[in-house]
Amino acid sequence: MKDQLISIEHLFVTLNGSHQPLLEDVNLTIKMGEMVGLIGESGSGKSLTSRAVTGLLPKEMRVSGRISYGGNNLLELSDKERYKQLGIKIGYIFQDYRGSFTPFIRIGKQMTETIRTHIKLTKKQSEQLAREVLNEVGLEDKTIYHRFPFQLSGGQIQRAAVAMTLALKPELIICDEMTTALDVITGEKVLNYLAKVQKETGCAVLIITHDLAQAYKHTNRIYVMQQGRIVEEGLSEEVRCHHKHPYTKKLCSCLLALPGEDLITTASQVMVK
Amino acid sequence: MRLVFSMIGKRITQLLIMFLLLSFITFVLMKLTPGDPVRTILNVEDVSTTTAQEELIKQQYGFDRPILIQYGEWLSNVVQLDLGESIIAKQPVLQLIINRLPASVALTIGGLVALLVIAVPFSVLAAIYENKWPDYLCRGVAIIGASIPSFWLGLLLIFFFSLQLNLLPVMGRGTLAHYILPSVTLGMAMAPVYIKLLREQLIDILQSSYIESAIARGIPRWRILLFHAIRGSLIPLVTMFGLSIGSLLGGITVIEMLFSWPGMGELIVNAVTQRDYPLIQGYIIVVGSLVVFINLLVDLITMLINPQIMQEARRAQ
After folding, report:
1. Which of A98, A87, A215 is closest to A156 using CA atoms?
2. Which chain B residues touch A88 with a CB distance below 8 Å?
């Protein structure tokens, strides 16, 4: 329990005026330096869970339960106190890469703006840091730094988003379907960069995905969600080979029907090389 | 930079085409409208004159020649920056316009500043508190503002701030204080439409994914609002301003008359009532050119606010 970074206990999310919960008794823990997968079909409540952690839920939703983080129950903190955690302690990478950056502000400016919001650095120091992290994720800072988001490809934007998140060295990074909008090879490259940086920094990562192959490959543990509930959890290998719940079985059978896992891995390795 | 020059080139071409069309149409229409400039020139509206006198004037001013020839002559003079001479004032039209134009432009800028000062806070407040009492209040103010005629609003402002409180001058142009009432009247008259537009834009943008990303990065809310949301919502606002600049320049006439503002309003009203054709023609050409020029500025500002538009323009080239 000591090395637990975040612990979600009995989390319920309900739409105002409705009795049917959207999330029902969700329990999930993430340890320091762990990569955890949250899988399930669209609408199963994966993103809702992550948004409950960050406080980005729509106003018309009620949350109850407990989200323990840094000795506090996040749900009991004021909006202002919760807001202070965003970016610097909990990083969030979105599915819609076009929306990761404000379209009419240069990437570099948005990165330095984010860095200087949380870390006391001069303009020059923050620029240097932004350039460093861009290079770390395999982007050429000389070109990317001065570009506008619409001048980059999807893969470049997602990597820049990873870079921006990493610049603040958060303890937890939530990747909400971050590769869904990318092609398979680019998505794999972005995840490989994330895994590499995760190993170097030791941060915890929650990967939300409906791509089982991705979850098996990159995570230590997996939670399976169905209709707002966690139906199965365990080590990635366990969930893959010894799943118990019929829904997980169904998901795995879909994966087996696909021919590409080995091909994807091989292709991404070729690309990275 | 090449793109900017190419845009300026395109606009100048547009300006020339517009100039020819506008000048020809107004030239012909003015000749067809009732009222005789000859009688105006003779200054004898209610007294009978001899045919010989009228014929002499017609010959002198070229009114007896075919309309196309009259237009051609006028056009060749305009190319040499000679807009003719005012029939009433007996002064060069260009000089008369140049004397009055700065006051009108200054009032327009004052009105624009007042518009921003009124519309931006109201629409931001309405968008942040969407469907709550500040939103209802702002929308109510906008509806009331839209239904009040600008001249009446001006009279109200004069009554309260000049006559009752004795804070601001009633009329004329001189000090900065003279600008406040006419500018506020103009700004308030335009504000309702802009409040509605900006509010809707802001609501859309505040729900967009890039704003959510900025929130997730922990950027302070005021920064998000100022540098990410408001800037994004300014684009349609600037475009709309460009489109409405023509009606705005026409609309300030009422306010100029109300505040005895020494702009082009009084000049053009007198020119129309007294059939001072050269002056009307000159006014239309100057204002038309100004509208095209301001639209060019609007295009450049839009590209600065949203560089994606510049990229699209580059691709289109």
Report:
1. A98
2. 218
pLDDT tens for each residue of B98-135: 998 889 989 988 988 998 899 999 999 999 998 899 99
B305 touches chain A (CB under 8 A): yes
Integer CA distances (angstroms), B5 to B11, B16, B91, B298, B304, in order: 10, 17, 37, 15, 15
Per-residue model confidence as pLDDT tens digits over B80-94: 888 888 878 788 999
- Mean predicted confidence (pLDDT) in B215-235: 91
Q: Among A36, A33, A32, which Cα is nearest to A2's?
A: A32
For tokens 């929130």, the residue is: B215
Cβ-defined contact of A86 to B306 (cutoff 8 Å): no
Residue A269 · residue A217 · CB < 8 Å: no
Domain boundaries, chain B: 2-93, 100-309
Interface ipTM = 0.85
Element (H, E) at A79: helix A79-85
Alpha-carbon distances of A260 from A41, A255, A267, A272, rounded to whole Å? 19, 9, 10, 18
What DSSP element (H or E) covers A30? strand A21-31
To the nearest 10°, report the CA torsion of A27, A161, A85, A225: -10
Phi and psi torsions of B19, nearest 5°: -60, -45
The reply to whether B306 touches chain A by the CB within 8 Å rule is yes
Q: How far is CA B175 from the centre of its chain?
A: 22
Beta strands A61-69 and A172-176, pairing class: unpaired
Yes or no: domain B100-309 corresponds to CATH 3.90.79.10: no
CA atoms within 13 A on the CB side of A55: 21
The answer to whether the CB atoms of A94 and B223 lie below 8 A apart is: no
Spell out the residues 6+ positions from residue B111 whose beta carbon is closer than 8 angstroms to its own. Answer: B182, B183, B186, B187, B190, B248, B252
pLDDT of A38: 94
Residue of B nearest to A101 (CA): B210
Chain-centroid distance, C-alpha B133: 34
pLDDT tens across A3-37, in order?
789 999 999 999 988 888 999 999 999 999 899 99
pLDDT grade, residue B42 (50/70/90)?
A: low
Are A133 and A167 in contact, with CB atoms under 8 Å apart?
Answer: yes
Tell which wins on pLDDT, B33 or B153.
B153
Q: Is the dihedral of CA A23, A29, A33, A38 positive or negative?
A: negative
Give the closest of B219, B307, B311 to A114, CB-based: B219
Report residue A242: phi and psi, to 5°: -125, 45
Tokens (6 digits) for B260: 């005895």
Task: Say which range, A221-235, A257-271, B189-203, has the weakest mean pLDDT.
Answer: A257-271
